[in-house]
Amino acid sequence: MSGSTQRAQQPKNFGFDADALALKDVAAKLFQDNLPIHTLHALVANDSDLQNGFVCHWDEELWKKVVDLGWLMVAVPERLGGMQMSAVAVASLVEQVGQAAMPGPLVPTLGACYILDACGTDNADAALSLIASGHSFSYGASNQHGSWEHDASELTFEEGKLSGTLYFVQDAQKVDYFLINAKLDGETTLIVVPANLPGLTIQPDTILDLTRDQASLKFDQAEIEESQIVSIPGKAIEAMNTALPALLTLVCADMCGAAEWQLQTTAEYARTRKQFDRNLGFFQAVKHPLADFMVAIDLARSHLYNAVCAIDHEAGSAEQFARMAKSAANDAAGFGSKKSVQLHGGIGFTWESAVHIYLKRQLHSQTLWGDAAYQRQKLAELILGTS
Amino acid sequence: MSENKKKDTPEQEAFRQYCREWLADNVPEAPPFKPLKSGAEVATEEHLAYYGAWQKSAYDAGLVGCDYPIEYGGGGKTRCQSVANQEMLKAKTPIMPGAIGLGMAAPTIYFHGSEELKRRLLPKLFSCEEIWCQGFSEPGAGSDLASVQTFAERKGDKWIINGHKVWTSTAQFATWMILLARTEKSDKYNGLTYFVVPIKSELGKSVTVRPLIKITGETGFNEEIFDNLEIDDAYRLDDVGKGWQVAMTTLAHERGAGPMTTPASGGQGITERKETGVREFGLLKLAQTCMRNGSAAIDDPVIRDKVMSMLIRQVGIKQHRRLRSVAGLADYQRLALQDKLLSTEYLQEAAAVALEVEGVAGTLSNFDEKAPDNGKWPLAYLSSFGSTIAAGTSEIQRNILGERVLGLDKSK
């Protein structure tokens, strides 16, 4: 699994280079200027009434800037007009996206890039070109039980028609295309469909996370062309396995960024809020959990960069390290989200405060591609060779 | 190695060559006992004789104290100690027993001692003819070091010292102690003064050294009772009332953050450690061997989850050290300050999981031959508290992180 000879070839600095740093700095600046916390709050938390269903809030002007900056194509191969940056660079970009809790389908689109790239077909390349030209994608595969297994889809593709429903599809109301997982004669197959495909109904979920949207995709005898099939027959699961480490680390990067916001915001509160004539941070009951949260974040980031570096340089170990990264990110987010609300005291329990926005984004991210215990179960299977 | 050469000054390059030549002929035979891994493990006269002889021979050859001036017994070189350390480690030399003297007492005496003290004390410290120990902690002053109560009372040109020091490694062999004492009761920080004191022989006969037995049943450190020890004022370092500042020099060097590089050797008996895959993770192997409810413990999903958590933590700590040096991606200081907390708490938790995996077999001590893994896990668990308590407890580490990195108010 982790061949020692391969390890030696890994760059000591994870391959984090000047291009990656520049991308990260541009991202930090963009969000500083365009999505400060009060703007985010006004954007996604203006209305606290979820009773009438979920409203999908996002800043389409900001999204246009994201597209213009070329972020959709950072993981698209150069031969298809993309920027083909390292997974390390992509991770450090997505950390900034998570730190800003930006609503928008960037992470789902980047995920689709890795899947399409792993498919290795002309049809997949055509889809990647769509991404390079600014179109967004989201991957759908889950059954109603929320399974993350690559063969769990209950969508069937027979005689050129799709029937059935995919569940828990991310940012479904925002994207231009879906990359879907369906059974063709019982065999897992990956297909690209436009969001406005006749016969496709997008049924939004009412979710807690205010910075994302999620939906079921209901297909009713929707007609598909041959050219929309992007996987090689019999090789879709292999492609998914290749892309899986990237899918995991994208969520991890988002979570690490969001966690850093939670840490800094709560530390700032602890530096300024006074009780018993002292700033809260004086008290060790406040100080120590914040220190522990910081350690947990940095441990998760260490795993994150180890995993993305493996994607770039040591593919054979990438899944193992990505599982570790998601486990560590979930542990950090679970602990830190709780503390970020708790240590804010009464104000942390209000809608007016911003901490709930990140708490909810983290709760949502924690479930994506499986929780911590699931990652450790999968890791054990990888190491012990059982399943 | 070519990398070192590139960075070496001409003096370092010549010295490196000299070290290699000397080490080629002068690394001693392995001892009749299992080689020790640090100076803190020196526990018997046999240990002391063997390692003391090694330190003396390395000193005589010029590999110890290279960067100190010649008049204080040093080598008068510039930034050559690190070269000697690298070459000694590479040559798999024995450890040196005078670690507290070399790493803590020597730089403190050098920066704060009188000319006479430097000339008199440093040569024998380097050569290991005199062993040093550190008298900082007291029963009433642990994490809150500045609250030490051992009192030095001035009587003309003399000081009369009374008090009680604890957790003193190698005091059983030491003839000298670096001592932080109170000289003024009304001022916590400015009421401290730093001394070097004899604790053996005629000079130090009013000091009683008693072994403290650790939680593991092992000896290793001591307590000292000062009963009217009378010393000359010449044994004072720096001014009266400057003890806290002098102690900071000692502690900075203890953390490896002081200006002087500590002479250090080692590597003896350590076999080439191959980069092992995750399958070789000790806790995993243990859980595959130990039985639970009729099958291997690793088959129990709860145990498996805990073992995986520990594996993830272990890999994470390695990557954490890798990450901290990546400019633009990590804040070095923020990550470096986490290292002690992270690694010591991990060792403790991993040992606790191992005990859980072992079940009732975890009751067997390392002296029982039936014990799994030679009883290393119960011993590791008990020993782990040494690391989570010594050199700044985990609680103090969290204070440091909260205050220095997150800017929270000082808890005191």
Tell me the strand percentage band of chain B: 5-15%
The helix/strand order of chain A is HHHHHHHEEEEEEEHEEHHHH
CATH architecture designation of the largest domain in chain A: Up-down Bundle
Shape category of chain A: globular
Q: What is the domain tally of chain B?
A: 3
Main sheet overview of chain B: 4 strands, mixed
Separation, N- and C-terminal Cα atoms of chain B? 46 Å
How many helices of chain A does DSSP assign? 12
Task: Write the CATH architecture name of the largest domain in chain B.
Answer: Up-down Bundle
Helix content of chain A: 40-55%
* Average pLDDT of chain A: 95
CATH fold type of the largest domain in chain B: Butyryl-CoA Dehydrogenase, subunit A, domain 3
Total beta-strand segments of chain A: 9
Oligomer: heterodimer
Helix content range of chain B: 40-55%
Summarize the structure.
Chain A has helices spanning 4-8, 18-34, 37-44, 60-68, 87-100, 106-119, 122-132, 236-272, 284-313, 315-342, 355-367, 372-384; strands at 137-140, 156-158, 161-170, 177-184, 187-194, 200-204, 214-223, 274-275, 278-279. Chain A is of the alpha+beta class and 387 residues long. Chain A is globular and about 75 Å long.
Features:
heterodimer, A: alpha+beta, Butyryl-CoA Dehydrogenase, subunit A, domain 2, Butyryl-CoA Dehydrogenase, subunit A, domain 3, 3 domains, seven-stranded mixed β-sheet, 51% helix, globular, B: 412 residues, alpha+beta, Butyryl-Coa Dehydrogenase, subunit A, domain 1, four-stranded mixed β-sheet, 10 strands, 14% strand
